[in-house]
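User: Run a structure prediction on this.
Assistant: Running it now.
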Amino acid sequence: MSLTKARDLLRLAEMAAARHGGVTLAEIAEEFSADHRTAQRMTRALEETFTGVEIRTGPDRRRRWRLREPGLLRMQGLRDAELAALEMSIRRAEREGAAPDAAALRSLRDRLLATMPRPHARRAEADAEALLECQGYACRPGPRVRVPSELLETIAEALKGPFALAIAYAGARDETPRERIVEPHGLLLGIRRYLVARDPDAGGGMKHFRVDRIQSARLLGQSLLREPDFDLERHAARAFGSFHAEDEYGPVAWRFSPAAAAVAREFVFHPDQAMEDEPDGSLVVRFQSCGWLEMAWHLYQWGDAVEVFEPGALRSLVASHRRSDFPATP
């Protein structure tokens, strides 16, 4: 067996041990960029190499492989690349003000290192530090709004509970904050952060609260029942950025010039985007979303290399701001 295949087999064993329901052929094919037959060969190798492999057929009629006795995996310890990825995630969380995430990742890192023999742990730490120096410290450049770490910790506790929150919130037109009782369902991240929560006093629908406008927050004793059909990822996809405006939701179409098409093709402007190549080499990107102002902020960076087909209101918003003297595309 080649070294690459051995590594892939160990990775498959990790997946089969970590997922309570086991791993399917489709998941294996996606993880290793393999076809169906290769995924089948990998499951046979898993069964032959490891004891305690369980094969079950789930309610969806798919076969799943689960490793019940991952003893050999525990002997591997923490790899230098994995430790470096943890360290970069910790530093990224610290820079972005996500104190609860940084603390949780540090705890995970320390617990994993504690399970390793000291010589192996020291070597992994040294190798990880070398990787960090080579790659540079990961961070997201650009402006961001500061948010107190204590506030983020309280919101994190409410989301984990889940618990209702009492927040002192100053809206766009409020001179002084007023207390609201809200039921948190998630956070939207961006230049500004938004708490997605039900507001029972405002009809019970989902509202967005700018986290930098929350003056204080405290947990309430009562637990809450989350909306069973609410999906934060699907909800987030309804907007281009973190700001939602339901009256703006609809079809969006942008045309990138032939000179900018190659660069635009590398972008994921929206999770559900569709791209169309034009005969002249230009590129049309289509999706459904809202948030015209955040779209305009982004489109400004492209100068006159992008043209808005729809919506008409966005086309009017950017029409007088398309410049030809930008020396580069984003």
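Residues 118-135 form the longest helix (18 residues).
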